[in-house]
Write a structure and sequence with these properties.
Layout (H helix, E strand, L loop, with lengths): L6 H7 L4 E4 L3 H9 L3 E7 L4 E7 L3 E4 L2 E4 L8 E2 L6 E9 L1 E9 L5
Antiparallel strand pairs: 1-7, 2-3, 4-5, 5-6, 7-8
C-alpha cells in the first residue's frame, strides 16, 4: 500500500519539530557550520546521496548559495526556492537531529 503524503506533511507531524521561514537560510547555514561533522543527505526521485564531514562556507551569487570548497562537499543551492526549514528531533535507536530544507513543492 502506498501513502499519498508529501515529505513536508510527514515532517510537520513529528513531535518536537520547529519550522522557520526559508528566508533565514543564511543564518541557519552559518549555525549548522558550527556543528562540526554532519551527514548531509540529498534525496530526490532519482538519487539518494550522502556526505559526511564539515559544511563549507558559502555566499550568495546569481540567485544561488554557492558553496566555497575545493574538495569534498561543494555545489550550488537555489536558496530562493527554500520556503521553510524544519528542525527535527527523532528517537529511533539513537537520538537523531535533522535540518530539512523545503522548496515551494514541499520537497
Amino acid at each position: 500500500m502506498q501513502y499519498q503524503a508529501m515529505m513536508a506533511e510527514l515532517i510537520q507531524a513529528i513531535a518536537h519539530t520547529v519550522i522557520i521561514n526559508g528566508s533565514q537560510f543564511n543564518a541557519v547555514w552559518q549555525e549548522v557550520q558550527t556543528w562540526n561533522e554532519i551527514t548531509f543527505l540529498l534525496h530526490t526521485v532519482n538519487i539518494i546521496a550522502q556526505f559526511s564531514g564539515a559544511l563549507p562556507a558559502g555566499k550568495k551569487g546569481a540567485g544561488y548559495f554557492n558553496l566555497q570548497h575545493n574538495q569534498g562537499f561543494s555545489g550550488n543551492i537555489c536558496m530562493q526556492n527554500c520556503v521553510y526549514i524544519a528542525f527535527v528531533v527523532r528517537s529511533f535507536m539513537l537520538i537523531g537531529h535533522s535540518c530539512n530544507y523545503f522548496s515551494k513543492l514541499a520537497r
